[in-house]
């Protein structure tokens, strides 16, 4: 039931504050991750883990890409991420004590399950699943499971599943990081930041009218470029995926530092450039990338932390977002991009909840 909402996608976007909170429940206190957050067997296992191999498809793959930044930054454990359809068809070197981590909303994605079944034969230390559907094949076949608490996701374009995957992945990262020397203070700082996320997402939902206004500028566009740096690069990828899935506008995402290495050639007044710019250590570098775009007449849409001081100028639309912690920023910054795609699709009159050619659960390869 869509309730008061026009589409399931919009309803699911608005559910995010609640379901992010639900995914934290029973797993974190005010300032730390609970020992039992990943189940009782996990504690000992995590101490042995020297490497993490993440496998997923689509939006879930983007969640895995964010997690790689977290796992290497906070836990200091090497992490590889690969789409399941690639991983399953190539030879790979398995390092000792590698945790195999599958991320899937449905738990029924054919390629992800095939990769897991291979991995179980291949000598990984253990298989952990992050999944939204209890009783799914992925949940049944994994050694350890962290359930996201997104509830049923009906819209084909994944929204709340992604932000709850990120929430679960950050909790997992903190549990792993603790056995690898993360200080109590740093853990407390990040857990406290995580508790602020539902409220920050609400603040962004309150900007809906501004984002809807912005979306009008995309009506006559055929292409769009998304830029992000660091852990916001996967957020840019996810923003581009949402836009292409539901509005059928061709969209690509690049790490902002790659602009000069090719995509800058595409930038002209017909190419909107969307950037996520929280106030992190990369903000200054990102601002100089924006200058490069502006100098070529590109129209810029910047979602930026107030403190990043990105000023609206000619051809630059800035939406100022609440201040967020650098670690939790990817969760929060995903939401305005979801809303942007949603409004563009509504204006274009596409079938938002059932985009052409796509299925909710990809059970064949
Ligand atoms: C995008 C989308 C897909 C899925 C992908 C994996 O909005 O929904 O890209 O993320 O098909 O599905 P799961 O997570 O069920 O394995």
TrEMBL record:
EC number annotated for this UniProt entry: 2.6.1.16
Compartment(s): Cytoplasm
Biological classification of the source: Bacteria, Pseudomonadati, Pseudomonadota, Gammaproteobacteria, Pseudomonadales
Job description of the protein: Catalyzes the first step in hexosamine metabolism, converting fructose-6P into glucosamine-6P using glutamine as a nitrogen source.
Active site: 360 (for fru-6p isomerization activity)
Recorded catalytic activity of this chain's protein: D-fructose 6-phosphate + L-glutamine = D-glucosamine 6-phosphate + L-glutamate
Protein name stated in the entry: Glutamine--fructose-6-phosphate aminotransferase [isomerizing]
Biological source species: Marinobacter adhaerens
GO BP annotations, alphabetical order: amino sugar biosynthetic process; carbohydrate metabolic process; fructose 6-phosphate metabolic process; protein N-linked glycosylation; UDP-N-acetylglucosamine metabolic process
Assembly and binders: Homodimer.
């Amino acid at each position: 039931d869509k309730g008061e909402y026009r589409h399931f996608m919009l309803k699911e976007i608005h559910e995010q504050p609640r379901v992010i909170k639900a995914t934290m429940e029973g797993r974190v206190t005010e300032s730390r991750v609970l020992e039992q957050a990943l189940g009782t067997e996990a504690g000992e296992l995590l101490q042995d883990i020297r490497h993490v191999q993440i496998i997923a498809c689509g939006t879930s793959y983007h969640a895995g890409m964010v997690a790689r930044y977290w796992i290497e930054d906070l836990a200091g454990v090497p992490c590889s991420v690969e789409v399941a359809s690639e991983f399953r068809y190539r030879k790979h070197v398995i390092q000792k004590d590698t945790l195999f981590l599958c991320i899937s909303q449905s738990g029924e994605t054919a390629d992800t399950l095939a990769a897991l079944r291979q991995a179980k034969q291949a000598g990984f230390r253990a298989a952990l699943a992050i999944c939204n559907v209890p009783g799914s094949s992925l949940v049944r076949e994994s050694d350890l499971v962290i359930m996201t608490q997104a509830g049923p996701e009906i819209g084909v374009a994944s929204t709340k599943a992604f932000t709850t995957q990120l929430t679960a992945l950050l909790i997992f990262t903190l549990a792993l990081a603790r056995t690898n020397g993360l200080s109590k203070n740093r853990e407390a700082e990040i857990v406290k930041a995580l508790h602020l996320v539902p409220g920050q997402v609400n603040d962004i939902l309150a900007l809906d009218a501004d984002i809807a206004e912005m979306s009008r500028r995309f009506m006559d566009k055929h292409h769009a470029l998304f830029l992000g740096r660091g852990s916001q690069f996967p957020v840019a990828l996810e923003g581009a995926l949402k836009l292409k899935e539901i509005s059928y506008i061709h969209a690509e995402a690049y790490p902002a530092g790659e602009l000069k290495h090719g995509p800058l050639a595409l930038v002209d007044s017909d190419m909107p450039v969307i950037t996520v710019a929280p106030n992190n250590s990369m903000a200054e570098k990102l601002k100089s990338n924006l200058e490069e775009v502006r100098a070529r007449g590109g129209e810029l849409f910047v979602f930026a932390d107030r403190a990043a001081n990105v000023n609206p100028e000619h051809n630059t639309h800035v939406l100022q977002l609440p201040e967020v912690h650098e670690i939790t920023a990817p969760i929060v910054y995903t939401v305005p991009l979801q809303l942007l795609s949603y409004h563009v699709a509504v204006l274009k009159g596409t079938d938002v909840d059932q985009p052409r050619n796509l299925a909710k659960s990809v059970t064949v390869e």
